[in-house]
Fold this sequence. Notes:
With 237 residues, the chain is of the alpha/beta class. The chain folds into two domains: 15-88 and 165-237, 3-Layer(aba) Sandwich (Rossmann fold); 100-164, no CATH class. Helices cover 33% and strands 25% of the residues. The protein contains seven helices and ten strands. It has helices spanning 46-53, 76-86, 104-114, 120-133, 149-161, 179-192, 205-211; strands at residues 8-17, 20-30, 35-39, 61-66, 69-71, 89-92, 167-171, 197-201, 214-218, 224-228. It has a six-stranded mixed sheet with strand order 6-7-8-3-9-10, sandwiched between helices. Helix 4 (120-133) packs across helix 5 and helix 6 (179-192) runs parallel beside helix 7. Residues 231-237 have low confidence and may be disordered.
Amino acid sequence: MPLETLRIEARSLFKSYGDKVILRDLDFTLEPGAHVLLQGPNGAGKTTLFRVLSMLESFEFGTIRFNDIEVSPGNYRSVRESVWRTGMLAYVFQEHSLWPHLSAEENLIFPLISSKGLGTGAARALAEEFLELVGLKEKAKSYPDFLSGGQQRRLAIARALVLRPRVLFLDEVSSNLDAESRSMLAELLKEMCRNVSVLSVSHDDAFDESFYDEVWTMDEGGMMVARALESIARTLP
């Protein structure tokens, strides 16, 4: 069944740490199915914006809309819980954040049971399906410490996508990988994220052009400029 699409709209988004303004009156829309790269110099606010949009950090002024759900500083805490419970957002961090005491398949089974309420049998079957999709079927019983960096990254992506999110946030997912692993990861994301919006922070130019269709560039003043990448042409079914 196709995933319901999700549009994220930010209006007059403002965020500061003390006297330092990080996000200054940002207005933008992440369209359903868009694959967007977020670029900018260190200190431009990329990570902060990433965390604000993924509901990991609050903001001071403005609004964020997830379809018909509007988030403001006043209702942030209560709405955040409902957004997280829906499973509409997922994220993969550079450090993977895999559970080291669980096997590869258990890393997928646990959130399916705890977040989606699936029974053990159904969760195991879905975990096996996604492990096969990311090429880790033979590593189902292996623990994260016994996987390569590329395999850990693929496992983290499988764990995020097995929950059927509508938006996936990626933080430097291609960093510290060799050329072969980056290429494999790019093909994997293109295949698995056809109906999922993606917002990614990355400095890997070779990887970016093969996957993203739009680039948002931030500067230290909190301004943002968007441009299309014509090398990719994708349409939602």
